[in-house]
Amino acid sequence: GIYVQIRNITFKERKKLKNHFVLGFVPFGGCFEEFIEPFISEMKILEKGKIMNIQGRTCLVIASLGDITADLPQGNDLVGVKRHGANKVCRTCNTAKDSLTLNDLDLPSVSRYHHQTDKQFEEIFAASTITERKKIATQYGLRLQPTILDQLRWERHLQSPHDIYHVTAGKVLRFLKITIDALSPEGKVEFISFWKSFEYPRRWQKLPNPISHIDSFMMSDCLRLAMMLPFILNRFLKTKHFKQSELDKLRVRTGVSRNNLAVKLWLRCWILMAKTMAIAFKHSFTEKDYIELQEYFENLPNLHVNYHLVQHARNYATLLNTSVETKEMVHKIFKNSVLRTNRKNIDLDLLKRYNTLFAMRYLFDGGIDS
Ligand SMILES: [Zn+2]
After folding, report:
1. Mean pLDDT score of the chain, rounded to an integer?
2. Which residues pair with 58 in a beta bridge?
3. What does residue 20 show for φ and ψ, rounded to 5 degrees?
4. Computed from CA positions of residues 267, 268, 273, 274, in that sequence, does the dihedral angle turn out positive or negative?
5. Euclidean distance between the first and the last CA atom of the chain, given in angstroms as a whole number
């Protein structure tokens, strides 16, 4: 599904389901460029400005692309950067694959810059043979051609931030799996018993069992559990709850000498995770918050995207401003209604439902047909 949001409305309005507009659905295996072409042509007109009659008043309407958010492989496609198989896989910087998590990355000097990428695309285009083109493209970690979005006015590397929900929930899920795998059978039993008896906020739906149902965890489940996990672990976690082999591994990797210190370190990591989340999802940032966010990220297990999140936060004021959690909800509504169609022409059926829904909302909001 492809959704559009209008940016010059308040954050509160922007988060409403009704302010997520569906452009349409690209069928599995369908061509995105072909699908998006009409939208791009209209955006080109809007970039120049178009005179429209809005509620009886003549207005000049100007619009352009604010930012795009997509899952990792598709996000790279939209920017024109190769997917994860390549040597340079980051859509924001030029760091080679094997040094993505080095501690002393100097971001300004390794960043990708729009004008440089333009030149690199020109270089690829100018090469005389296809082999040569592929070679240069690989060297820069770019696709053979710029994407269709490049026909619009945008800064491809700055206007393609990573989504904080996906990034954080993905990290939590990974760490949760690692933690559970590292527990001994006794540790697992204890974990589940403390997890069950924990006093969760009343309003929360019951979380799925993190050991037996980890694969059906949704993003929101991950984030909720991550908030509580430091408290749950703190209530019982001892050396005996871990597999000895896992503690040995951790001690070797961190240089910690004693088992109980290794367990503390594990717990500390979950605490950091929870604290980082608290800052990352803030509705507004002070200068101190940006600095704190950076410090937390530096202390968390190194993941390349951490480096860029602080920059995204500064570019867009907060990370929530470019997050897509409401879009995920809208998407879920559509996904659920797929089950109620005969699946012959899914996008038409979905769009019909969407139109009806929209018309009803319009009427409920007091709109009239002129
Ligand atoms: Zn990067």
Report:
1. 90
2. 53
3. -105, 115
4. positive
5. 31
Could you tell me the distance, in angstroms and rounded to a whole number, from the CA of residue 263 to the centre of ligand 1? Answer: 31
Q: How far is the CA of 145 from the centre of ligand 1 (A)?
A: 21
- Report how far ligand 1's centroid is from the alpha carbon of 355 (Å): 40
Structure confidence at residue 370 as a pLDDT band (50, 70, 90): low
Domain ranges of the chain: 1-29+340-370, 31-64, 72-151, 168-280+289-303
User: Tokens 């690209």 label which residue?
Assistant: 26
- The one-character DSSP state at 235 is H
* 187 alpha carbon – ligand 1 mean position (Å): 37
Per-residue pLDDT averaged across 132-161, rounded?
A: 94
Q: Distance (Å, rounded) from C-alpha 115 to C-alpha 241?
A: 54
Q: Say how many Å lie between the CA of residue 88 and the centre of ligand 1.
A: 9
Cα gap 14→254, rounded to integer Å: 44
pLDDT tens per residue, range 328-361:
888 888 888 888 888 788 888 888 888 898 888 8
Please tell me what DSSP assigns to residue 81: B
What is the mean pLDDT of the segment spanning 178-203? Answer: 94
Three-class DSSP category at 261: helix
pLDDT of 301 above 80: no
